[in-house]
Amino acid sequence: MDFKKQVVDALVKVLPDEITEEQVTKLIEKPKTSDLGDYAFPTFILAKSLHKNPKVIAEELVGQINTDGFEKVVNTGAYINFFLDKKAFSEDVIKEVLDQKDNYGNDNLGKGRNVPIDMSSPNIAKPMSMGHLRSTVIGNSIANIIKKLNYQPVKINHLGDWGTQFGKLIVGYKLWGSVEEVEADPINNLLKYYVRFHKEAEEKPELDDEARAWFKRMEDGDEEALALWTWFKELSLKEFQTIYDRLGVEFDHFTGESFYNDKMDAIVKTLEDKNLLEESRGAEIVDLSQYDLSPALIKKTDGATLYITRDLAAAKYRKDTFDFVKSLYVVGSEQAEHFTKLKIVLKKMGYDWADDIVYIPFGLITTGGKKLSTRKGNVILLEDVLNDAVKLAKKQIEEKNPNLKNKDAVAEAVGVGAVVFHDLKNDRRDSFDFNLEEVVRFEGETGPYVQYTNARALSILRKADVDYSDADSFAVTDIEAWDTLKMLADFPNVVQRAANSYEPSVIAKYVLKLAKSFNQYYAHSRILNDDEGLKARLALVKSVSTVLQMSLALLGVKAPEEM
């Protein structure tokens, strides 16, 4: 049952005709505390037309409202406060969660339409740092959320596997590397060559010329250059996959920048046919001065293509291949201008579907207030952070529950979950300074706190060992359970809010509140009392566990049954 609509319907019958149902719906508020009611309507909007004090209006309207289906309707100052029928509400909510199980909160808004998501996208031959965590877990969570609304996410790992940096890497490897060294520790040694290249190029600028020449050889199909590039790529993907496996992240496509090499000529031709290309200092550009933007550089003076050329080709390929309803790019905030240019150029090319491209920016993870940089060698390796988090989880398990079965698996789920949840509970646009102790903290508003709450709920059900499915009633009228029940009812709305804003933190903040609310209920109520309300209370516990697990799953966090 839609309880908010019940409130709206009751109000519409007594309000002036000029106040529409849509207006009433928008004006409805939720009081901060349950003692002020479950929904509230402010009467200030009526003061001018009725020429009365809002408080007087509220008093008069309360006397006219049909209170059937409500516990009571009162006025507090200028507000009309509605108290829902707790018995009917709890019966309805618990039954809906138990019946629908993991489908609770599902909707058909997407109608099965495709939504490509460009996410993660690490650079080949560089380690995955904490900086790569954000795009990976934000993109993965958005994919989970929109899938619940029947959009079909297509997760694309747009690998950074092309560009001048590979010329630099080849030069560095040829000068200072060896097959044996690379095979022994691929990513760290390739990173070492890359960092050394940049240091030495400051004194020897001719190294940059050599790097550009090697990249041009790659573009021209040179056998040696491509063989080295393929080797670096295969070694990197193997290393990346171990991280993705631990994060529980899967991809539908590993189509990196190189995939679009044979698709860029068509883009350049379309730009030419539309008279959009101009020559500037030997390079080919699209002039964007009318938008107060620097030019979109399509081809450099040596004919080599650039990042935006490949992104134009990628956007066109995704539209042709997936016929998307939306195309999402989960990329750092510093790329805002790039995506503005991308959409403008696509529109100029005549592709109105450019309006369906959505850039989803996120803030930086810094250290000491400074941006992480592989070029300078100051990186925080994601694998190291995951390992440290798992060690801390294992230590806490040994202290609190040394006889726990599958301790290693639980520690992995809790440690990795702590890192993922810490990232996703922040609004994605916010930057934060990396602090290992903060990331893997298990007290307070953390992933492990939510995981433990779910494990507690499941422990209550195991201890009771009672079949609650045949209860005569699922009504829970205990006032201590009321906030928890209202939060369960709000879950479908939360999913839609998270999807509409492409914001996983909406789910993370919700599940923290649900866990806190349930723990307060547990602390103040005797759930396992053997009385006529036992089965209904156990059904509530099961409902809470179901929604906690679904929320964690939407964030890409596992939910161990015991901790």
From TrEMBL:
Organism taxonomic ancestry: Bacteria, Bacillati, Bacillota, Bacilli, Lactobacillales
Entry's Gene Ontology cellular component terms: cytoplasm
Self-association state and partner proteins as the record states: Monomer.
Source organism of this protein record: Companilactobacillus suantsaicola
Single annotated GO MF: arginine-tRNA ligase activity
Pfam families referenced in this protein's UniProt entry, alphabetically: Arg_tRNA_synt_N, DALR_1, tRNA-synt_1d
UniProt cross-references to CDD domains, sorted A to Z: Anticodon_Ia_Arg (cd07956), ArgRS_core (cd00671)
Domain of life: Bacteria
Family: Belongs to the class-I aminoacyl-tRNA synthetase family.
The keyword ATP-binding belongs to this UniProt entry's keyword annotation: yes
Chain ranges for the short sequence motif 'HIGH' region as given in the UniProt record: 122-132
Name listed for the protein in its UniProt record: Arginine--tRNA ligase
